[in-house]
Amino acid sequence: MSIEVKNLTYIYNPGMPGETRALDGVSFEVHDGEILGIIGHTGSGKSTLLQHLNGLLRPTSGQVFVDGQCITDGKVRLVDIRRKVGLVFQYPEYQLFEETVAKDVAFGPRNTGLEESKIENRVRAALSLVGLDYDEIGESSPFELSGGQKRRVAIAGVLAMRPSVLILDEPTAGLDPAAHREILSMIRTIHESMGIIIIFVSHNMGDIASLSDRVIVMDKAKIAMSGTPQEVFSHDKQLAAMGLDVPPVRSIMMQIAAEIPSIQSNALTTQEAAEDIRRAIPGFEQ
Amino acid sequence: MIRDITLGQYYPGDSPVHRLDARTKIIGTLLYIIELFIVNNYWGFVIAAAALFAVIALSRVPVKFIFRGLSAVFIIIAFTFLLNLFMVDGRVLWHWKFLTITYEGLSRACFMAIRLVLLIIGSSMMTLTTKPIELTDGLEKLLKPFGLIGLPTHEIALMMTIALRFIPTLMEETDKIIKAQEARGADFESGNLLQRAKSLIPILIPLFISSFRIAQDLALAMEARCYHGGSGRTRMNEIHFGKGDVVAAILMVIFLAVIIASRFIPDLF
Amino acid sequence: MAFIEIRDLVVQFTRISEDGSETAGKKAIDGIDLDVEKGSFVAVIGMNGSGKSTLAKCLNGLIIPTSGKVLVDGMDTSDDSHIWDIRRRIGMVFQNPDNQIVSSIVEDDVAFGPENLGIPPEEIRERVDNALKEVGMYENRLKGAHMLSGGQKQRIAIAGAVAMKPQCIVFDEPTAMLDPKGRESVMRIIRQLNSEGITTILITHFMNEAAQADRIVVLGKGKVLADRTPDRLFSDMELIDRAGLELPPLIELREVLGLSDSIMTVEDMISELKKQCR
User: Fold this and answer.
1) Does residue B229 share a domain with residue B112?
2) Which residues form the domain of C164?
3) Region A281-285: what's the mean pLDDT?
4) Nearest alpha carbon to residue B252 among B30, B9, B87, B76
5) What's the ipTM?
């Protein structure tokens, strides 16, 4: 499984006074089993990009290949693309509508024409992937659940379509710290057990640093940078110019390094940072 | 994008048209719409269009901006045009299979399309040059006499203010929900009428829930800001008749007379 | 007497079942005592469902206590005759930037509160202009609200509260739906307003925002789990875990390094490390 985006350009309202170039010659690849993080200031084109990956938007020019198959030439059935590429929008809990959790999660598989007999198993499996129990909540109304649970039900609704690529737009937005941690570990679980490509957009640089194998930085409709989190977050000045931060630990370590030149660190996590400090100060005392 | 719809939008400015009392503009617009229906020949439209362009020039709203709003309702105009074009009997101009265009049909289609375009531009001039709040304040004041017979004028005006405010929000919300359900393989375009109606449920329910949430949030926010009905409220910009309004009223009367007179001139074509 | 006094507050919602009968539902607030002094900056944190938002709505009488009392400047929120006096003293900014803006045009929305107070037009104009300048949105005063970013909308909502000249503003998760830039601009304005003497109550999920307050109140299941200064709160790991919270990044680093609890800022950390280097 792979995704290849070639020279993607998208113009809103072409030829109209409100014409805007939301994507401008964007090219990148995502390899099998990779977790790709996408960052960028609001309005940099991230959401527009995501909507091209499952055919919700048609590019003005350029192509998207999913597993070698071009999905932008209009020959593939849209429902097949959407089964292959699952897209979870920001605040996905607002799209729940069925009477019961089980029915809501079954909405996607049913739309793709899956046989009724297989649907229940799909729903069970999807709910257990997001850490929920079918027997416990399958028959309850999705509107009675807590905020974090609702979000997981919505994600299960996309997972039940067995996508080969899972795209998440700001999966942790608006959650409390505990629910936030749960969603992060849920994403890791999904990745490990399904082995699928995961693409996620986040403003939380800590999440980006801890989850992604590779990071793409969007700025003014273009890809401004890409690389491992280490590489991308070492360009703190360029990121700041695009209105982006580095992970909080990174920013602390940079402030320390500015005052104490002997402590140089590329750490992205607290543990790495602590090790770098201990190493730099011989005889470090607690 | 939905944000670009200019219909019902305000174009900030400080022109003589912007400065007019909202009531003058509401009455003027109503009068203009009535006059468009009084018109019975192209001379009338020439005069009405000239008057409209004079107002546009005076308002300093860019023409480009006005026509952008028009493009949003282009389909309605095109539909009206085609309907009239093919549906009127008379002298045959062109015929192909079941489609027939008559001289009378063409004439009626042009007539209707011009009337509709002038009507839309005319009424959008009101919203473009009047802040929504002034518009609803103006309406509240115009409706005031009906308050004596129990019409809740303040509430009606407030409802309009909120409706105007939340149209873009709800449109964005709808757009988001449609896309989210499409991403789950929902299909809104195929199937018979019943299936299509059923396929709207996944959009309508979340939209209803969103609307209720918005309503609840907004009600709390308004209460927290001391809203307690119309009594004892003041306004930042009290609307009042000025010199400009007197001039506008005189011009409106003259224009009405000219339009009525235009009925008696022989037609252009 | 403190500006806000909360005594033995209980809020219990009633459940209305399908047949219309009412039964007592869950206690959202279960016995809270709290004082907020004039001019102070109090953060309220806790998991979803811990009662934070309910508490906020009790402060200006949007929710009336089931039992107990909330006194604002000596006035009881359950006394109907004082409700407008209380609400003009306590402004409120909510989480969703979209759903609290009433008018389409920025300045008309900011004027909504003062208009409700029946203030003369010239003074409303002055208050609106000043409030918009305070939040740095004066240049956008004639824009349509729906054209603004989330952070800008939230600044308009703050201006709407400021224009009522409140003595206190309650912020109910004002940054939850914003991007980092919007979040930072809103926090800057909150600090600025507090430094101008406005009593500030900030409900938040972000620990680094809470750490900027003078005092942090931790809620759990409708009760106060702790009420301390940030440095004393963030040195109690057991409590942080129990309340489902997390440490701000700097304090997490301090804890991993096993350094003293007195280190609360990067500057503290730097001077401690400098000492160690010598």
Assistant:
1) no
2) 38-63+83-246
3) 79
4) B30
5) 0.91
